[in-house]
Design a protein that fits this description.
single chain; alpha+beta; Rossmann fold; OB fold (Dihydrolipoamide Acetyltransferase, E2P); 5-stranded mixed barrel; 8 helices; 20 strands; binds adenosine-5'-triphosphate
């Protein structure tokens, strides 16, 4: 377990960045401990790349109250003198150099003698299982191998923080999954702080110690992957985390961490309250994962419905139920879809449903 109380390797406080009239970052703060894998997650245009560019020094922020890398303030420090390196999606390798020359390049421009630089580069290549291809031309490598060269080239200079801008985005699904595991392994071996950008919630949940979910230049939610997965704080976060069903209603009762909400049309259901300060009577939403829903008997926590469609998908069956609160998507993994095709009741465990303030979409 990482010591999150140690002095952070990266500290950004209250950064604002505007491109003319567009506010790309609006008072964002974040930090990462030594050896932490921090992921910045968000859809296109949410400000992820801008955040990385501000950290690396490629962009001068409109304002920032603190920006520290490796314990030192880097406000006003040029990109080349910051103790961080960026790995890009398009690798940005030099096509006219061999693999090992590419990796040694960063050391050479730091005036490391050629012999030492090549030795260090070989060691970095061994870490990404490419030592046998050190003398190849970049054009003779596959996409995954190129990305490994880019990684070796970035870590060889031992930055305090490694920034990764959607580094696996150009790879196909299978290779991407393999590379996710390799990256995690490398990060642990090096005990290096990684700040990783992605728009894939699956990637963020798989790889990270902590996830920062961004929306319109602000942080919507941050926490450990499981926290975001099980406790989204808003409709946006729930939607991003893959909750298939989000229904609106009004909080009518609260009993400790359990809330009861009226969805209209006589449907009153229960779930866990994300926030302790939701007042009875306030507009709320309840989020439900399709695979956590199942048929229940009369009176069980849930809602009556009629089956609208049932699609067999091999490992599971997707069912859509029509209810007074709208359509509900269910996923049955057992090949045992609901038997009663005319009328039924869909239910869930209170702890499997999350209730949060209705808020904006
Ligand atoms: N050079 C620029 N000039 C003007 N606006 C920009 C510039 N770069 C980014 N923006 C705007 O700033 C906002 C944030 O962009 P940014 O690239 O940081 O988002 P992102 O989350 O990285 O998106 P993506 O996943 O598509 O890369 C967007 O509205 C974008 O259009």
């Amino acid at each position: 377990m990482k010591d999150m109380n140690a002095e952070p390797m990266l500290e950004v406080r209250d950064v604002v960045h505007k491109y003319g009239p567009v506010t790309a970052l609006s008072h964002v703060s974040l930090s990462a401990a030594k050896g932490e894998f921090l992921t910045i997650l968000g859809s296109s245009g949410s400000g992820k790349t801008t955040m990385l560019r501000v950290i690396s020094g490629l962009e001068t922020p409109t304002s920032v109250s603190c920006l520290r890398i490796g314990g030192e303030s880097v406000v006003g420090v040029p990109a080349a003198r910051r103790r961080c390196t960026t790995v890009f999606q398009n690798y940005a390798l030099f096509p006219h150099m061999t693999v090992v020359e590419n990796v040694a390049y960063g050391l050479k421009i730091r005036k490391v003698p050629t012999g030492d630089a090549l030795k260090e580069a070989q060691r970095a290549l061994a870490m990404v299982q490419l030592e046998a291809k050190a003398d190849r031309n970049i054009r003779q490598l596959s996409g995954g191998e190129r990305q490994r060269v880019a990684l070796a080239r970035a870590v060889v200079t031992k930055p305090a923080v490694l920034l990764l801008d959607e580094p696996l985005g150009a790879l196909d699904e299978r290779l991407r999954q393999d590379m996710q595991l390799e990256l995690m392994d490398l990060q642990r071996k090096l005990d290096m702080t990684f700040v990783y950008i992605t728009h894939s919630q699956e990637e963020a949940l798989t790889m990270s110690d902590r996830v920062v979910l961004m929306r319109h230049g602000r942080i919507e939610q941050s926490g450990e992957p499981l926290d975001l997965f099980d406790h989204p704080v808003s409709r946006f976060a729930a939607d991003f985390m893959g909750y298939e069903n989000i229904l609106d209603g009004r909080l009518v009762r609260r009993d400790g961490a359990v809330g009861e909400i009226d969805l209209g049309g006589g449907a009153v259901v229960r779930g866990k309250l994300i926030s302790t300060d939701l007042a009875v009577g306030s507009p709320v939403s309840i989020a439900l994962r399709a695979e956590r829903l199942s048929p229940v008997g009369p009176g069980g926590n849930g809602i009556d419905g009629t089956m609208k469609s049932k699609v067999y998908r091999g490992k599971y069956t997707d069912i859509v139920m029509e209810t007074v609160a709208g359509a509900l998507r269910m996923r049955s993994w057992h090949g045992a879809p609901m038997e009663n095709e005319t009328a039924s009741r869909v239910g869930w465990k209170e702890t499997d449903a999350v209730i949060f303030a209705k808020g904006s979409v």
